[in-house]
Amino acid sequence: MKASSKNFFIIGVLVLLVITIPLTLYFVKQQQELRSKAAPSSNLSLVTTEASLPVGETFSVDVMLDPGNNVPSFVKFTITYDPQKLELVQVTPDPQNITSTLSGPEIASGSATVDFGISKAITGYDPNADFNQPFRVATLQLVAKEKTDTPTQVAFSFPGQTQVYSLSADDSPGENVLQNASPIMLTILDGSEQPSTTPTPSLSPTFTPTPTASPSPTLPPQNTSPVCTTLTVNPASGSAALTTQFSVTGNDPDGTIAKVTFNYGDGQVAEVTEGLGTQAVTVEQSHTFNNPNTYSVSAVLTDNRGDTSIACTQTVVVNETQATGSDSATITPPAVDTAPTSPPPIANPGSFGTALGVIGAIMLTVIGGLLFFAL
């Protein structure tokens, strides 16, 4: 009878082990997946086909949203520009992608703010659908007012009054999932300049010489400025000291590239001349940002005649290094009074998985000790 009770005890302990071990592994795995999935990956950018335009011209700039791994349902942005060089006359939402205008547009001198609801996420939302294709949010109508000596910038107020919120189950409620917002550089030309003419001198009334035809002067061919095609950064955000890799591509239609100048926005400038001298180039550089801040990084190409390109720009966000020893710093955008009311916070799913893992480990230790004494 005693031996039979001992056998039942051993069988019961084994059944507990069979149930406890898979549950512990499952919840630990769920915790790791939740930590890896919930990350901001949306990007806003400004796109135009007319980077150079004359004074008085009206032109369009598209606001594009690349959702990445998020499912954006709401986007709010504030556009800033130089009111002496440009005038923003209209903000038109894209009817295929925007279901409603929640507020605005509020257009002031040098800025405009608007809130949109995104129809492709709100209408017929399917959690398994693919929402990671870039799409147009709105179109800006601007007028060129005054000639620029250097390119003028149209940019988002980011970080700040520019946010994207997501319906994805992998994103926290009320979390701003916007990772980056890229500006655009514009050059305004003065079309009123006319070539000067040399007046013909009057002839002496006592004498009329036979005119001698002078050969027409041969003008040198007009040089075409180089073009900066792309500037990529990796990573675009992280904790100080953050080392970022930059890669710029460009070409010169009628010459060669002689120099590439990187301005990192923190007072450091790097000029690259080695390995150039060709019509198309790709130049890579790395730079370390030691202090927390938001840096506007630009790259300018110079050709063999000294003409320069319009700058390619990107934004790098550097956060303070966290003292908790976590693997990566979390980018926390500053709070904005005009942001929509966030849903009530939910418990961190990672802490539940951690607690179950600890409980499972304690149970395994106790059960192992019981088996040792029972046997």
What's the number of extended β-strand segments?
A: 20
Poorly predicted runs of 5 or more residues: 193-200, 325-349
- Determine and state the CATH class of the domain at 40-191: Mainly Beta
Task: Tell me the major beta sheet.
Answer: 7 strands, mixed
Number of helices: 3
Share of residues in strands: 35-45%
Distance between the termini: 16 Å
Structural class: alpha+beta
CATH-defined topology of the domain at 40-191: Immunoglobulin-like
Helix content: 10-25%
Principal-axes shape call: elongated
Can you write the helix and strand succession as a string? HEEEEEEEHEEEEEEEEEEEEEH
Mean pLDDT: 77
Computed over alpha carbons, the radius of gyration is 31 Å
**CATH second-level architecture of the domain at 40-191:** Sandwich
Key features of this structure:
alpha+beta, 7-stranded mixed beta sheet, 20 strands, 375 residues, Immunoglobulin-like, 5-stranded mixed beta sheet, elongated
Q: Can you characterise this structure?
A:
- With 375 residues, the chain is an alpha+beta fold.
- Among the domains are: 2-35 and 351-374; 40-191, Immunoglobulin-like (Sandwich).
- Helices cover 18% and strands 39% of the residues.
- It contains 3 helices and 20 strands.
- Strands 2, 4, 6, 7, 9, 10 and 12 form a 7-stranded mixed sheet that branches. Strands 5-8-3-1-11 form a 5-stranded mixed sheet, with no helix packed on it.
- β6 (98-108) and β7 (111-118) form a beta hairpin.
